[in-house]
Amino acid sequence: MGPYRGSTLNRARLSNAAAVFVTPDIRATARYYREVFGFTVVEHYDAEEAFATIYRDSVEVVLVEARGGEVESNRARYGAGFDIYFDPDTLEGVDALHAELRAKGARILGQPAMTPYGSYEFVVEDVDGRLIGIGRISDRETFFRAPSADGSGRGPAGPAAVRRRPAFSPPGSQSARSM
Predict the structure, then answer these.
(1) Among 28, 57, 95, 136, which is 20 to 30 Å from 149 by CA?
(2) pLDDT in tens, 87-102
(3) pLDDT band, residue 85 (cuts 50/70/90)
(4) Among 19, 24, 29, which Cα is nearest to 66's?
């Protein structure tokens, strides 16, 4: 029996998770996130494995330089998914961040819009081709709807029943047209 099963030991509480982006040019990627997204950059370029950590509000992302292979977005490599998803603290924050990024010349792949799964969001492609989802849950009942036993999606709502987000489809793709 493991140390936590049936035990009265307290579990450690996690306070953060940091995404790690592998990049072809760590300095160029750090500069992009500083200039376009407004992140603060902490450089560790002289470390054995050079890295930088970028911060904005409560978001932390670690950048490491690739030593081999090709850097690709999740969408290019696996055919699905964002590479990271940023949640502004309010729905208005989604529009404010969209305006901020547009003013700084970010490659924005569409206007903020409601999704069929209840999130108000838009997508940015970063300097390395990663797809950055930016949004906030607007319709909690739709987003947290649990699938029913018959598969109709009309079961009880609640965070324990979170459904997976559909993969992002670039505007004009076959998947985007079928939504």
Answers:
(1) 136
(2) 999 999 999 999 999 9
(3) very high
(4) 24
User: pLDDT tens, 2-52?
Assistant: 555 655 578 898 888 999 999 999 999 999 999 999 999 999 999 999 999
Which position has the token pair 């997976």? Answer: 164
Helix (H) or strand (E) holding 124: strand 119-125
Record the tokens describing residue 39, joined without a space: 């992140």
Distance separating alpha carbons of residues 11 and 91, to the nearest angstrom: 33
Domains plus CATH for the chain?
A: 1-71 (3.10.180.10), 76-167 (3.10.180.10)
> What is the C-alpha R_g of the chain?
19
Which of these, 48, 66, 56, lies nearest to 32 by C-alpha position? Answer: 56
Give which of 85, 63, 92, 178 is closest to 131, Cα–Cα: 85
Q: Which tokens go with 70?
A: 């090709």
Alpha helices by DSSP H, the chain: 26-35, 74-78, 91-103, 140-143, 174-178
Q: Which of 127, 143, 28 is nearest to 83 (CA)?
A: 127
